[in-house]
Design brief:
Rossmann fold, GMP Synthetase, Chain A, domain 3, 2 domains, six-stranded mixed beta sheet, 9 helices, globular, binds guanosine-5'-triphosphate, binds magnesium ion
Length: 296
């Protein structure tokens, strides 16, 4: 049998569970997940290998009405992701009714030549998924509909089987043991950002970026990491550091635990906080942080 491969874009409004689903399919924590919308800011690939096929999932930021330049780069990333894939999964949240963001996602998916599947997530959290699903079916001409729970895995094997079955013949793009194409420094920054998002409230989680400045193996069983948390204003700097440094210590210790699990050895995590005035609206900062702006 010939080898098959292909790309699937996961699109949807914020917080529907795209990243959770990607992690579940790949079987490893590739993309960060929080209970807050707009967690994902970049197109992140997760790779699943079987004996005869390679399925590359492309996670995307949630579709929303952007209020900042950063938001525009996020929506642009989702728009770009669907342009060159074999299949689009529009992920929706069965615990909520469709809104305009689901509509924009459907519109985006409809503009691509790839078939669109409706992936109805959070099935575990509704008593009657058929009723919850009904209003979503009308958003686009879906070729298939899959109710799933990304959280407990229900329905996911069937979804993956179906996607594998329709992959075209193609080459293997990534090595067997590769589950994501993210650079390690980026991944480390994302782990830290996840814990910032989990611990902070209001506007702070949305106005923090993490830059990894240094990462070195100091001893066979110790990696030293220095990272800067960028915020928009001095007042946010105070919030992130917290009273007598408590907030930063909490974030640091949680992120360190996650990173030690990832590296399989001790991590010394050295966190700094810096204000970069209005970085979410400034092209030079977005560029420096690797957020790609749409071309005009
Ligand atoms: N009950 C339930 N919760 C889920 C399921 N999948 C995801 N969640 C939760 O939904 C929230 C959002 O999950 P994410 O995977 O971050 O959602 P996302 O679509 O990637 O969100 P953005 O990156 O912000 O666009 C988290 O709290 C998840 O734990 C599911 O199948 N069932
Ligand atoms: Mg996400």
């Amino acid at each position: 049998m010939e080898y098959k491969s292909g790309f699937v874009a996961l699109v949807g409004r914020p917080n529907v569970g795209k990243s959770t689903l990607l992690n579940e399919v790949v079987g490893s924590k590739v993309a960060m997940v929080t209970q807050k919308p707009q967690t994902t800011r970049n197109g992140i690939r997760g790779i699943l290998h079987t004996d005869r096929a390679e399925l590359v999932l492309v996670d995307t930021p949630g579709m929303h009405r952007p209020r900042t330049r950063l938001g525009r780069t996020m929506v642009h990333t989702a728009q770009r992701a669907v342009s060159d894939v074999e299949l689009v999964w529009q992920v929706v949240d069965l615990t909520r009714s469709p809104n305009e963001e689901d509509g924009w996602t459907a519109e985006l998916a409809r503009r691509t030549p790839a078939p669109i599947w409706l992936v109805a997530n959070k099935q575990d959290a509704v008593s009657d998924w058929r009723t919850a699903l009904a209003p979503y079916r009308a958003l686009a001409a879906y070729q298939a509909v899959y109710p799933v729970s990304a959280k407990n895995g229900d329905g996911v094997p069937e979804l993956v089987e179906a996607a594998l079955a329709r992959l075209p013949v193609g080459p293997q793009f990534f090595p067997d043991d590769m589950v994501t194409d993210q650079a390690e420094d980026f991944y480390v920054g994302e782990v830290v950002r996840e814990h910032v998002m989990l611990e902070t409230h209001q506007e702070v989680p949305y106005q923090v970026a993490v830059q990894v400045d240094e990462k070195i193996r100091r001893q066979p069983d110790l990696t030293y990491i220095r990272a800067t948390l960028l915020v928009e204003r001095d007042s946010q700097r105070g919030i992130l550091i917290g009273e007598r440094g408590r907030m930063l210590r909490t974030i640091g210790s949680e992120a360190r635990t996650a990173l030690e699990e990832y590296f399989g050895h001790r991590v010394f995590l050295d966190l700094w906080v810096k204000a970069a005035e209005d970085w979410t609206d400034r092209a030079e900062w977005l560029n420096r942080l690797g957020y790609r702006e749409p071309k005009r």
